């Protein structure tokens, strides 16, 4: 079940950041959505507190994700945590933790965690993203050449999503038995 997961964000070399530095995490895929954390580290120069944003996104046009979120800052003398409910959709995708939170540097790192428990959602991806340029992904049974770039894909998957591909790969056409096909405008 992918409805409960942890997004961890470690900022290395924490003592080197200068005022005005905003740091963003890499994108984390969980629960069918893309999650990212950002923080303004410059606030630690004005006060020992900072603010965070947790962003949720989906590639689908119509989506919604309701989740309970527990936010934890790891510190040398214990952890600080806060819980809240997060409701996001295509028009509102950011949960702001802007009360001002204590900054802790442990071994020259800031360490933050968001435990996300999705209560209800729709419109998220059901599958993890697939690298269509990597031949180790399966099931790939055709290589499409589009604009000079080779994409390794599944005929079955393309046919489900496109009547043109269904006809091309499963009708009485030469492409039916080809392992590589160039797509032109």
From TrEMBL:
Signal peptide: none annotated. Residues 140-185 form the BTB domain. This is BTB domain-containing protein. It comes from Pristionchus mayeri.
């Amino acid at each position: 079940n992918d409805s409960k997961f942890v997004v961890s964000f470690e900022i290395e070399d924490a003592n080197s950041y200068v005022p005005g530095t905003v740091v963003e995490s890499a994108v984390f895929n969980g629960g069918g959505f893309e999650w990212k954390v950002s923080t303004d580290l410059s606030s630690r120069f004005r006060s020992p507190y900072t603010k965070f944003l947790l962003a949720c996104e989906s590639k689908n046009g119509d989506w919604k994700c309701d989740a309970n979120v527990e936010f934890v800052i790891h510190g040398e003398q214990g952890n600080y945590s806060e819980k809240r409910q997060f409701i996001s959709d295509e028009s509102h995708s950011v949960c702001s933790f802007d009360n001002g939170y204590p900054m802790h540097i442990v071994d020259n790192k800031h360490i933050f965690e968001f435990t996300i428990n999705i209560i209800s959602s729709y419109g998220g991806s059901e599958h993890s993203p697939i690298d269509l340029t990597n031949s180790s992904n399966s099931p790939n049974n055709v290589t499409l050449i589009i604009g000079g770039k080779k994409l390794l894909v599944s005929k079955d998957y393309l046919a489900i999503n496109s009547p043109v591909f269904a006809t091309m790969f499963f009708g009485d056409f030469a492409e039916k038995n080809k392992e590589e096909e160039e797509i032109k405008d």
